[in-house]
Automatic annotation (TrEMBL):
The keyword Zinc applies. It comes from Chelydra serpentina. This is Zinc finger SWIM-type containing 9. InterPro entries: DUF5575_C, DUF5575_N, Znf_SWIM, ZSWIM9, ZSWIM9_RNaseH-like. Pfam families: DUF5575, DUF5575_C, DUF5575_N. Signal peptide: none annotated. GO terms for molecular function: zinc ion binding.
Length: 529
């Protein structure tokens, strides 16, 4: 009967078989291990090979599992050697190359089954671990920060390229080689060698969070791929740009991502815990109560334009008539400049929108009005267009990420975004106009020229105790902490901001238009005698 249960049974992934086999072994208290196998990645095909996604899912063209005692007992048993057990199971890929099938099974053991021995030797997830990393290793390291030595040790344990784990670890190894101070937290699915979540930030991103902790933004990126979601934490730099300070890649439907991400950020950069005054969240983000626990001084805001879009869609869903007054009304509601204006818009809502929508609004959005209505907005955030900032970030991500990227490729793309991405956003013309408005023509022309060099130069940066060190490939230049002075001949001869100051300010998030850069050369200013 046991043979009948297994014979010809089909599985559409190695993970599916592994989960089934774990439960099957636990019920029967039997111990099997892989005697031999043929990975699909090493097969040569006379006809068309299986699709890459099938290779990833099935992993093997054939696998033979044998009883733990197939070699027999090495101890004499009643004066003789116990013969090896013949119990075995064979899986092979189907002729259609789309599934694994149990083609042979011999389940009669020539020895008594021992529950105590089973409890000692059985390792749940063994078959998944056998294809890549030991499950006990991933269970132990899961939900912890890892460093370069940890990643190299995991790489040394890897047996194959299963689940993209090897690719992810290779990317992390490269990250730590170039940035040893980076922070990475890995989460594996329990008892499986499958990456569930990766939280990471570079030392540069940590520096941005320390310099600009006042306001943070957290949202999910739309349309990464079918399996994983990407969440970003942003700050606002001195030039008003959204800058990434942390990323979290996670399998879809992973719960409580806000708590996990903020906790990991605070663990990485502890000083931000008490410095954040406002965090703006995407409308889909749940478990907002985590903010008070992890960022006790922060006010929670929800992206106003996303709330508007949600309310408008819900009104249509709940039967609102096509009425050109609805959208302007919702806009007045969100942009209310006083409690009275807000209440007036709520009263008007009752006259033109269905009662079902009004009940929905009272239940879901009125209790949280202080999080999205303009009157109650965090004062400093009123000059920041959170919606536009998040949309710009989404556009940058969509432009930078490969189509339908793997987790490893997504990480590579995100890290590449951090290198020189600000230069593409530098508007030389606008900055030059600002400087021409306060400077005489000759110094304004020199500043415009230096802005161009700042954008197109190739520099390496290093933070020091005194300030910053910049390498341009030929020479090194030192700058103060405030980034107002440089050791180069351009600055020392003219006392005007040079390319090195602009490039470093661009990298660190400081404003490029800053009249304070001219405080040592007031003769350059218009109206100076």
């Amino acid at each position: 009967m046991e043979e009948d249960e297994l014979q010809e049974k089909e599985f559409f992934s190695w993970e599916e078989f592994s989960a089934f086999f774990d439960a099957w072994c636990e019920r029967r208290k039997v111990l099997f291990f892989v005697k031999n196998s043929v990975p699909l990645s090493k097969c040569k095909w006379a006809t068309a090979p299986p699709r890459p996604d099938v290779v990833e899912a099935l992993k093997y063209s054939s696998v033979r599992l044998v009883c733990k005692d197939f070699r027999g007992s090495s101890k004499p048993d009643q004066g003789g050697q116990q013969k090896g057990c013949c119990a075995s199971i064979v899986l092979k890929m189907s002729p259609k190359k789309d599934r694994l099938i149990v083609t042979e099974c011999q389940l009669t053991h020539n020895h008594a089954l021992c529950p105590i021995e089973f409890a000692y030797y059985f390792k749940k997830g063994y078959l998944m671990a056998n294809s890549c990393l030991p499950v006990r290793t991933t269970n132990k390291i899961s939900k912890q920060f890892v460093g370069g030595p940890d990643v190299r040790r995991l790489l040394s344990y890897c047996k194959s390229r299963d689940h993209g784990v090897l690719d992810v670890l290779t990317v992390l190894d490269g990250l730590f080689a170039s940035d040893p101070s980076a922070k990475v937290k890995l989460v594996f699915m329990e008892d499986k060698v499958i990456v569930q979540t990766i939280f990471f930030l570079s030392s540069r991103m940590m520096a941005l969070s320390r310099r600009f902790p006042l306001m943070l933004f957290f949202d999910r990126m739309v349309g990464l791929n079918e399996e994983f979601d990407l969440y970003s934490v942003l700050c606002v730099d001195g030039a008003g740009r959204g800058r990434e300070v942390a990323y979290c890649l996670t399998q879809r439907e992973t719960p409580d991502l806000l708590r996990f991400t903020l906790a990991s950020l605070v663990q990485s950069v502890p000083e931000v815990k008490l410095q954040v005054r406002c965090i703006t969240l995407g409308v889909e983000i749940a478990h907002l109560e985590a903010v008070k626990e992890l960022l006790p001084n922060a006010r929670v805001q929800i992206c106003r334009s996303q709330v508007l879009e949600t309310l408008f869609s819900k009104a249509q869903e709940l039967g609102a008539a096509e009425d050109e007054r609805i959208w302007p009304l919702l806009c007045r509601l969100a942009a209310a400049k006083s409690p009275a204006a807000y209440q007036q818009a709520v009263q008007e809502m009752k006259t033109i929108l269905p009662q079902r929508f009004v009940r929905y609004f009272r239940r879901h959005w009125q209790p949280r009005s202080e999080m999205w209505v303009q009157f109650w907005a965090f004062e400093t955030a009123r000059n920041v267009n959170a919606c536009e900032l998040l949309k710009q970030h989404q556009r940058r991500l969509l432009a930078a990420l490969s189509p339908s990227p793997t987790v490893a490729q997504c990480m590579l793309d995100l890290l590449a975004m951090q290198v020189g991405s600000e230069a593409h956003e530098l508007d030389e013309g606008e900055l030059a106009t600002h400087y021409r408005a306060i400077c005489k023509p000759e110094p304004a022309g020199l500043i415009e020229e230096e802005l161009g060099f700042a954008r197109h130069g190739r520099y390496r940066f290093q933070e020091t105790a005194e300030g910053y060190l910049l390498h341009d490939g030929l020479s090194k230049f030192t700058m103060d902490q405030a980034l107002t002075r440089c050791s180069c001949s351009i600055y020392t001869s003219s006392l005007l901001p040079c390319r090195h100051l602009f490039a470093t300010r661009l990298r660190t998030g400081l404003a490029l238009f800053d009249p304070g850069l001219l405080h040592r050369n007031r003769a350059a200013l218009l109206g100076a005698c």
